[in-house]
Amino acid sequence: MSRFSGRRVSVFWGFFWWAPVIALPVGVFFFETWLQVRTVERGYAAAEVRRKLKDADAHINRLQGRIDELTALKNVSEHAPDMGLVPIQPGQVEVVYIPEASPAPFRADESIAIANADVPHGER
């Protein structure tokens, strides 16, 4: 039995010393593969976001064109009678004038209001 016990210990220590030599390159290979897969996945996600952005921009441009079409003066003037808007008739509009009030005379012994704050004359 002692003949096999020494050999078993040698095999154990041999495996113990050579396992990192094999495991390190395999681990680096798996890490590099994982990193490449993540990069490709991110690339697909970025392409999807760019496509959605392009579609949204095209939709906004279509809506802006529709707004321009609907707010065009020709379209508004065609639909104005349907909305009850009619041309102005003579006598329909009355202009109201408000007479201007004469300013009160300035007296130097009174305080002056500047910027909605009462400040005595000469102080600033």
- Tell me which oligomeric state these chains represent: single chain
Query: How is the largest sheet built, in terms of strand order?
Result: 1-2
Order of helices and strands: HHEE
Largest sheet: 2 strands, antiparallel
Class from secondary-structure proportions? mainly alpha
Beta-strand content:
under 5%
End-to-end distance: 110 Å
Number of domains: 1
Q: What's the gyration radius in Å?
A: 44 Å
Query: Total strand count, please?
Result: 2
Helical residues, percent: 55-70%
Low-confidence stretches: none
Number of helices: 2
Mean pLDDT: 80
Name the overall outline.
elongated
Structure characterization notes:
- The protein has one domain (2-101).
- Helix content is 61%, strand content 5%.
- It has helices spanning 2-70, 73-79, and strands spanning 112-114, 117-119.
- The protein has a two-stranded antiparallel ribbon with strand order 1-2.
- The chain is elongated and about 120 Å long.
- The protein starts with a helix and ends in a 5-residue tail after the last strand.
Could you give the topology of this structure?
Layout: H1 2-70, H2 73-79, E1 112-114, E2 117-119
Antiparallel strand pairs: 1-2
Entry summary:
The chain is 61% helix and 5% strand. It has helices spanning 2-70, 73-79, and strands spanning 112-114, 117-119.
Task: Provide key terms for this protein.
single chain; 2 strands; 2 helices; mainly alpha; 124 residues
